[in-house]
Amino acid sequence: MLVFNIKDRIRARSTKKLNDKGIARIRTIVESFESIQRYDRQHEPKRGKRTFSFVSLVTFCIYLEIMGLTYDADISQNKLNAMGMPYDKVSREYRHPSPARISHFINHEWPLMSNQVSSEYVNSVLKALPEKRFTVDSTPMEASRYSLRYNYSPHYEIRMGKCHIIMCNGYPLVCTFTDANASDSLELPKLLDLLPSHIGGVKEFTSDGAYASFSNYSSVFNRLNVVMASNIAKHSVFHDERTLEYIEGLYSKQWKERDYRPKATPASKLNFLTRKGFEKPVGMFLRNLDMSRGKRISNIYAKSRHVCETVHRAMKRWMNFDVRGLRKESDSQRKSFKFFTAQVLCTIFDPYVEC
C-alpha cells in the first residue's frame, strides 16, 4: 500500500470540495492495496469480464460516504472518470454502478476483503513510521433519536454507538464497535490483539482514563514494552506494596517454570508474570509507575492524547461518521467501511503528528 510523502499531502484537511484531482488521489491509494488487487484477481468471472473493478467500486463507495450520498446519486462524468469507471462507447458516458451492485459489494464482498485490507493498511503505516506514538480512545457514533438498536448515553445525552480506536501518530489503525454504555476498558485487549505481533520503535502508549485498569497496563506492556500513560482519576490509590522488590520476589517464586530465567531483565520479568496469569499485581506496579510521573511529563502525554480527539473531530468533518439511518442487515459492514474511509483520508491529508 502507498503512503504518500508529507510533501505530497493535501494541506487543507477538508473534503467539502472534493474535485476530480482529489478523487484521483483517493483512487491512487486504493489501487496501491495489493489485497484489493488480489481479491479482484481471485474472483475473476469464469466467463466474460467484470464490468466494475473492485478498485473503482471501493473508490466510488468512499466518495458516497464522504459526500453523504445515496446509492443512486447523480454523479458527474468527470468524477466517474476519476474513479476509474468503465466508458460505454454506445452511450458515450462513463457507467454508474446500480444501487443493487453497490449494495451487494458492501454487504457481501467488502466483509470478505476487509480483514486483509485492514492488515495491509496497518503494516504499511507502521513500516513508514520510524517512531510510533500510540493512543487509544473511543468516539461516539450518533444514532437517530428514534433508534431501537442503540441505547441512550447519559454522558453524551444522545442515542449512540461507540467506536474504540487505536491510533499511531494520528493514523487510525484498528477499531471495535460497541453500544453506548459498554465498558471502554474491556475493548483495549481486543484492539491490541488486532495489531501485528512484533512492533518496533514504540515510544509511548497513551489512553483515556476509562482504559486505566490494572489488566490493561499489563497487556499494553506485554504487547508493546512501554508503560501506558493514562489520564488517571484523582481518587485512584497508589499501592505502596507493589514495588520492584515485590515483583522480583514474585518472579523468583516461579523458578520451577521451564521458561524461568534467573538473570532476566525487569521488563522480561514483567512479561513473564503477565503470561503466567499475574496481570493484576503487574498492572498495579505499572500503574504506580504511571502515577509517579511528574507534572511536566504528564502534560506532554496529555498533549499526545489530545491528538486522538483532534483526529476524531476531523473524521466527523470529513464524513458522516455516525450510525444514523443504517439498516440492521448492513450495520456492521457500513461501520467497517466508514472506518476504512477515514483511514484512506488520513493518508492523503497532512498528518496531525509528524515524527
Question: How would you describe this protein?
Answer:
The protein has about 350 residues and is an alpha/beta fold. It contains twelve helices and eight strands. The protein has helices spanning about 20-30, 35-40, 55-65, 75-85, 100-130, 185-195, 215-225, 245-250, 265-275, 280-290, 295-320, 330-350, and strands spanning about 85-90, 95, 130-140, 150-155, 160-170, 170-180, 200-205, 230. Strands 3, 4, 5, 6, 7 and 8 form a six-stranded mixed sheet that branches. Strands 1-2 form a two-stranded antiparallel ribbon. A hairpin with a 2-residue loop joins strand 5 and strand 6. The longest helix has 30 residues, at about 100-130. The radius of gyration is 23 Å and the shape is elongated. About 35% of the residues are buried. The mean pLDDT is about 90.
What keyword list fits this structure?
355 residues; alpha/beta; 6-stranded mixed beta sheet; two-stranded antiparallel sheet; 12 helices; elongated
Task: Give a short overview.
The chain has 355 residues and is α/β, with parallel strands linked by helices.
